[in-house]
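$ ./design --mode recover --in tokens.txt
reading tokens...
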């Protein structure tokens, strides 16, 4: 069964979300998936919409990641305020405080969140964030 053929019990189809205002997927996945009123984003790293990787400090990378998430959410008809859960992956847990400073500027409504330290991320990124949003 293909993802396009999946239908929820309420008869809602899975919709692939794509925008040129965020970087293209660098693998076989979608920028986000919408099912009914729920949006699931793929993890975003510090790639610009043109695909340039910002090999910079954690604050700069976190800002680009959040801008990418905003663009993907917008393409799905949502705003960052619709986010109910985020998952953050850090390649160095010592970057937590600096990442959190920038993250807090975007997620003022304080959605639920998990933060995980990982060995490494694609392209040598310092941070990757994915989220789940709900719209009415």
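writing sequence...
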């Amino acid at each position: 069964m293909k993802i396009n053929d999946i239908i929820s019990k309420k008869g809602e189809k899975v919709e692939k979300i794509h925008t040129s205002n965020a970087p293209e997927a660098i693998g076989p996945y979608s920028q986000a998936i919408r099912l009914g009123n729920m949006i699931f984003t793929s993890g975003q790293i510090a790639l610009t919409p043109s695909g340039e990787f910002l090999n910079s400090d954690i604050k700069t990378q976190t800002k680009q990641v959040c801008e990418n998430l905003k663009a993907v959410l917008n393409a799905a008809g949502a705003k960052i305020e619709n986010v109910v859960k985020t998952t953050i992956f850090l390649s160095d847990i010592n970057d937590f405080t600096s990442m959190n400073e920038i993250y807090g500027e975007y997620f003022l409504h304080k959605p639920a969140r998990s933060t995980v330290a990982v060995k490494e991320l694609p392209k040598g990124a310092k941070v990757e964030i994915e989220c789940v949003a709900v719209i009415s």
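exit 0
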